[in-house]
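mind reviewing these tokens:
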Amino acid sequence: MNASAQQGKPDPRPWLAHYPAAVPPRIDEAQTGTLADLINGACRSYAQRPAFESFGKAISFAETGAAARAFAAWLQSMGFQRGDRVALMMPNILAYPAVMFGALIGGFTVVNVNPLYTARELAHQLNDSGARVLVVIENFAHVVQEAKPQLSLDAIIVATAGDLMGFKGHIVNFVARRIKKVVKRYDLPGSVPLATILAGSAEMQPVKVGPDDVAFLQYTGGTTGVAKGATLTHRNVASNVEQCALWLGWALEPPHGRSDYQHVMVTALPLYHIFALTCCCLFMLRIGAKGLLIANPRDIDGFVKTLKSSRFTIISGVNTLYNALANHPGFAEVNFEELRFAVSGGMATQAAVAKHWKQVTGRPIIEGYGLSETSPVASINRPDISEFSGTVGFPVPSTDFAIRDSEGNDLSIGESGEICIRGPQVMVGYWNRPDETAKVMTPDGFFRSGDIGVMQPDGQVRIVDRMKDMVLVSGFNVYPNEVEEVLAAHPGVREAAVVGLPDEHSGEAVTAFVVRKDDTLSADELRAFCKQSLTGYKVPRQIFFRESLPKTNVGKVLRRALREEHVSGS
């Protein structure tokens, strides 16, 4: 019994009593090392294992490591220095991890860029980060060309989907350029083909990478305002990898002690997103797993076809992706025998989606929670749950949670307030924005998440909603997640989003945007359904039916876009 309990005070860390027996309360930060240590160690220890697979072509850890060293050697030969920012603008192709690893082992800082950015968005991120190098897949090189007059880059490197694929790469590129015509014309004088760099013979010079060196500038907040770079050190991200390893590793033990057994992570979430970056890539290095890279997860037909022909043991995704897969008519034909668990994050997972997923796959969704600012994993469900819990689980080792009011006071168990997080995975601040950093960091070292949550007596955390998305109806708080959960439970609804729109009588009115499964479903029928589970002021006053909902490339529904679209009348 700890001191707080002995003195009759509430246990400040009730979750520790409910940890799996194999999980310690803290990681050994002194032994965590750097991401360079992780990458170099994995490429040596698992040299002959396949590390990544894309379009049916796999490359080994040794090949990935060789490509990484070649890229780092080229950067060094061109005079770039430790700490220089290297921006990556690619989907999930073999070149992505190779180039990222090369930058990290060379002591450079990686700036992950959404390849679907417009020229304006791209210019902001590259200029804000001070990036000197940009690696872009040729499919989006025309956007770089458009933004180039506003950029101060010293080098532009053009990658292709077929890089590192040998002869098959020529076929992949031919299909992309000629048949599918997904590569638009571009003109970037002086740009260098990545294939030329990777074929170079220069030797990488040894680099001492330290835990406090900046590994990533992970931009966040682009859907709510000006994007800010969360500054993540090697210590931050390596700590989070170790936290994931302690929390999940015991549940990933190979069957019957087989040393040749290899896990395969279905990597559909883009690697430039922090969830995929840490959980699908870097954590997989830690356990010697293979990443099955899905370049275009929006092509659900193609995605399901790949799953049918692939062995996999872990999958990660967001609510919208799990919903799309579970509703695909061919998904039930996928072999789920080796699937250990499905991990969800990035947005709230709806109970109806989780239920449908388990009906099809036989496995529950294990939901976690985190942000770019927390590298990202802050909490996660136990991997041995048999049913979807509706919570985001327990804080991971070496992590403290506090639920606080607007004045920064700690709230009691069961009270809703802002989730605040402290741990070695929390960023050191926003890049060159001390004022923004000061707004989110508390004097006692907690990061203010901007999310509203409730802690249960056992220490599990339930997310209520984002503070900024809360709808205020005549002084009453309405959380869109709660209303969306009810809407999604209707058998005629495929997906739904809820926002608050201005209303002269109540201040704001709850408004729903719905994609139907059943075209005969009416707004009145749906409102009547909601009234069975929601008090009157929470029931959507207006319901608009749509063919689709606007989403980020990761699959998060853009509530802000819906609100602005409707208010502007467009």
About this structure: Confidence is low (pLDDT under 50) at residues 1-6. Residues 61-209 form a domain with the Rossmann fold fold (CATH 3.40.50.980). The CA atoms of residues 329 and 387 lie 24 Å apart. The longest strand covers residues 493-503.
